[in-house]
Amino acid sequence: MSLSIRNQIPGTVVSVTPGEVMATVKVRLYGGQEITAAITLEAVKELGLAAGSSVRTLIKSTEVALATGAIEGLSIRNRIPGTITEVTTGGAMAGVKVTVAGGELTAAITKDAVTDLGLAAGSSVIALIKSTEISLASV
Known about the structure:
Layout (H helix, E strand, L loop, with lengths): L6 E12 L3 E8 L4 E7 H7 L6 E6 L5 E3 L10 E12 L3 E8 L2 E8 H7 L6 E6 L5 E4 L1
């Protein structure tokens, strides 16, 4: 199956914490960092997710925010450090490719944000992704 979602990073489920309707699934990406996905309990069951399951994390580029340094007092749990490899700007928006351990992420952000943050190839950034914006696919 082909998907339009550019950000697809493989990993292994570390733990599943079920709730009434939703579950949090911790995934260790192949680069070593851990991220958390909040998905429905029904999806956990349908995909057969448990510790040790191989998965692919799926993240739309519009759901990836970038920070140029550590941020305190933020509810976003998924903070993945990386280095910008490419910035492509258009009239209003920009695509920023970030190499992270074990893969690559693309962030779709405003052109103004690129300018204001001084983003360029070689810049260190932290990709910020809400757990509710991460989907999982079984492998």
